[in-house]
## 1
Amino acid sequence: MPIPPLVGWLLVLLCAATGGYCLSRIRTGPPAQRVAARGEALMACGMAVMALPASVVTPPAWMPWLFTAVFGAAALWALVRRHPHHAVDSLAMVYMALAMVGMPDMAGMPADGRMATEMAGMPGMAGMTGAAGGAHAAPPGIPLLTGLLLAYYAVYVLIAGSRLVPTGPASVGGAAVRPDTPVVLRACQVAMGLGMFAMLLAL
């Protein structure tokens, strides 16, 4: 993705740490927590790979289609299980993966300058070199859809982040009652929301 290298590596570290914690929670806790941990772990691993700076690690040409297949299936599974947020997460990953298809830095795809030169040397194609150069300036995604996803994740991070503020544990019969979702897992969900917001902002 067109992310500055420093931002990309920070996202990789954030997502890798989040994915590692979520993977450690897959076999512990109630079933609902394990399901949430599996979904967050998949998202974290996918985002860590997608956030790798293209200037350092050139993704292969088939990578966007692999993301589309994996997260398309994850979105369908989340819809069947009635987990709307995980479905939105997975569909956002599909959207970003498809946006990567049109990027010139994908393996096997020539950069716009070389493409324009090759087109200029072909009979009847000289007039299309301006269009090839103009395509580089166009955003890879759909601006309206990108804006809607940015708004969704901004609201999600604000709401989920506000739930991290301690309000004092509830008690029943003098014993403290722990929330259904561990605080660290909720913090991971906020971190993933911030990561998605940053990656969508780069489109």
## 2
Amino acid sequence: MSNASLILFNKPYGVQSQFRDDSNNDHSTLSHYFTDKSLRVAGRLDATSEGLLILTSDGRVNKAITQPPSAASFSSSKHKQGKTYLVQVEGAATSAQLNELAVGVDLKDGKTLPATVKMVAESELPIDLWQRNPPIRERKNVPTSWLMLTIYEGKNRQVRRMTAHVGLPCLRLIRWSVAGFDLGNLAVGKFVRIHLNSERCKQLGIEI
């Protein structure tokens, strides 16, 4: 019987993925939502990004989620833990731009691993969008569109840099799912604890 567990948190815009207060900015921290200091973030989100943040006090769970495969082992890895983002971008993606994101783009810190991406209508998003405060910046006569992008690594500000690289500046970034766990109907600023059974641990590559 597994005693592993994790917390799914719908992180609001403007909240840092840390417990320590940083006097250098006006962002709030996780200490506004959690009192358990044993919790650790399994895959950070920028303060200006929203959506699914996983926290756990179990080192095995954290390692399974946060250690991506290398480029050399990616194709043979049995436990790829994908992260899916809903990305509002400026402009409408072309087939060439989507293909470039899918095969990998060359960033300053290396080429990104292959990804899965498609353009979706706002009505096709897997969530009911909430109002963001502040709202996104919009330019008159410049359309925006949504991408659903799944990546398998975690370079710093990776999704924003990927879309910018192909000419699609990111306006809003919401993480929908991590390693098979998703937001579901979880409201902004709310969280739920998930207890992992033996089968789920096995899927994550955790030995129990």
